[in-house]
Amino acid sequence: MSDSAQPDDFEAAFHRSAERHERAWVMVSIVLLTLLLAGTMFFVVFDYGVIVRTEGFRRDPAVLADTSQGLVQTGPNAYAVQMVGHLWAWTPSPLHVPQGAAITFHVTSTDVLHGFQVQGTTINITAVPGVTGAVTYTFSRPGTFNIICNEFCGIEHQAMLGRIVVDPGPPPKVTP
Ligand code: CUA
Predict the structure, then answer these.
(1) Protein residues with CB under 6 Å of any ligand 1 atom
(2) Which residue of 62, 65, 84, 118 shows the fewest CB atoms closer than 10 Å?
């Protein structure tokens, strides 16, 4: 700084410099965040692919609502059931299933997100409107199991209960 420079000039020069640095760092931050976002999106797509809903997952709401069929046999020791969550109950309930058989639950919702969880088992799947998810489980002991909703779905969420009754049956046949 020369002798002729006034304190005002010094202050003005200081602010000009600070603004320049501030602008530079803002630009650096924007560039870094953009790279981070692009990189994250790239690796998510690279790892999981782009997931598009296909017709295979879609179901007619009228068909979804019709659970009058209940449990249907699909194999020698296999059954399937359409399980529907709605405000605020699970249908069908109570559901009777045989012990020792593979039960496939096709789970969906007619309104909002619900969480299909059966206490004392590993069954835990989200019920999504317009989409059917499937989970297969074999109940090895007879008894009554509670279905609860583990996805907050409104004022009666905590009362959204269902029941599965596992009827005692012969142990599955073992072929030598
Ligand atoms: Cu249904 Cu919470």
Answers:
(1) 85, 88, 114, 149, 151-153, 157, 160
(2) 62
